[in-house]
What does this fold into?
Amino acid sequence: DGGITQSPKYLFRKEGQNVTLSCEQNLNHDAMYWYRQDPGQGLRLIYYSQIVNDFQKGDIAEGYSVSREKKESFPLTVTSAQKNPTAFYLCASLPDHNKGKTFGSGTRLTVV
Amino acid sequence: AQKITQTQPGMFVQEKEAVTLDCTYDTSDPSYGLFWYKQPSSGEMIFLIYQGSYDQQNATEGRYSLNFQKARKSANLVISASQLGDSAMYFCAMREGDSSYKLIFGSGTRLLVRP
It folds into this structure.
């Protein structure tokens, strides 16, 4: 079955460390997205990519970086510059504008 | 200004009854899309229903329907015949413009279905 795989499900990071969250899709979707969700909040867009080797900043890109070397993969790096990285991170992909995005099951990142 | 407003942080509904979750939006773009997502406790976001700004009829998908009132800028989700599995967070979201890939989300409504 096609879908989006995010790993790991839970991730703990020490302050000052960079960590990379994995997102892989086998849906052949062009567009991929990273969102951040804080408790009791909706989703906020971090980065998105419409095609391979191209990506754009979303609303809260500071302290994050991404790459899109393959269509299937869109990893997110949370850098030490991100002041408050503890959150739930969701990856999504989209076949076209009028369809709902397909989301992964998320990664819960905690800074210890 | 809030683009998407969900004024009900939490709601209860009795099993088998219908429930309406409110969503109002704000945009000056004549072309936009409205989405509803369900987020169970497992965390994934599940797409439920879509309404385009030019669609003449209200969208329906099984037990879900969208009460689209364009002049009032509201896009309420109606769930008929509630089931225990409907207990979850529900998010309203909007895409502005024809070519935008960005979705703006509301803060969500937590629905609890009582047996």
Summary: The first strand of chain A starts at residue 4 and ends at 7.
